[in-house]
Fold Histidinol-phosphate aminotransferase family protein.
Amino acid sequence: LFAAEAEQTIPLPDVIKTIKLSSNENPHGPSAASRKAMIDAVMSSNRYPWDVTTKLREEIGALTGHTKEHIVIGAGSSELLGLTAVWAALQKGNAVAPDPTFRLWMPAARKTGLEIKLVPLTEKKETDLQRMKEAMNAQTRMVYICNPGNPTGTIIPAAELEAFIKEVAPKAIILLDEAYTEFSNEPSMAHLVNDYPNLVIAKTFSKIYGMAGARVGYVLAHPATVKQLNELQPWANAGASAVSLAGALAAIKDKAFIDYCKKENAAAKTIFYNTLDKLNIPYIQSHTSFVYFNTTGFGKDFKAILEAKNIVGARTFEEGTKWLRLSIGTQDEMKKVAAALLG
Ligand code: PLP
């Protein structure tokens, strides 16, 4: 209602009219419960948020069958991906990662002493666990896996991933990025952290919970590992604000909102799949909130067609190819994408 009223009186700046499909944000968030909790928490911003941090760690622990001692809180999961890479780099060596993948942690890893060994995806754009194992050597300190994968949206079946973790965890830290797991039907690997202190699972409130701007993420790991990571934080678990933490605490209990976002994402994704089918553009079945597709045979500039309609976000992750990734917006936004492309 507020937005509709504002639009009647003041022309919206172009940046607001733009449909942004570049960073896999959730167009439905934050949930009403999170918004209310954040507004209410503004007044407590004069105090350090220890109570709410602890409560959030307890709630996450309970949700995953663990305790608060298994949880590290950070300002988004990317902070914790970097922290884990720095922890791994304390023993100089190398890190093995798929290519392409989510790369934000790599500069910190390189700077602190890890050479990055990139392992190409399979023909089907899947994470090549076999070749990743082969790329490891005695100096491998960390293996990064993003599951489901970014930018591809593919998923490693749980049994296969579990077997990989069992084999590799005795040798190196496994940094498992589960930013998009909630959009898929595969389980988290959270149940393995007590058995494998080298397993570090990174999770975020930025995706299914729709709180990318609030900057809250967490790591799920063995308590001994959590202690190591906490020691690398100037102030353990203190990266997120009182307001953001209150929003996260409300979000984690809001199962109905998560179900809604998953359902909406699936419906909006189907609209985009249908559009790609009509254009004969091949794509990878996605277990996430974005789709990876190959515009080689398209013959026109996919990105420019969308940008002419103020739709931004078609991005290249493999230089020299015409594979693009587009985030999934609302159903309405994906209908606008369809209209732009199909005319
Ligand atoms: N991991 C993956 C695979 C992502 O795609 C992203 C964001 O796009 C992140 C982590 C970072 O999320 P956060 O907002 O929690 O830092």
In short: The domain at 2-29+255-342 is CATH 3.90.1150.10 (Aspartate Aminotransferase, domain 1). The two ends are 31 Å apart (CA to CA). The chain has two domains: 2-29+255-342, 32-252. Residues 71 and 220 are 5 Å apart (CA to CA).
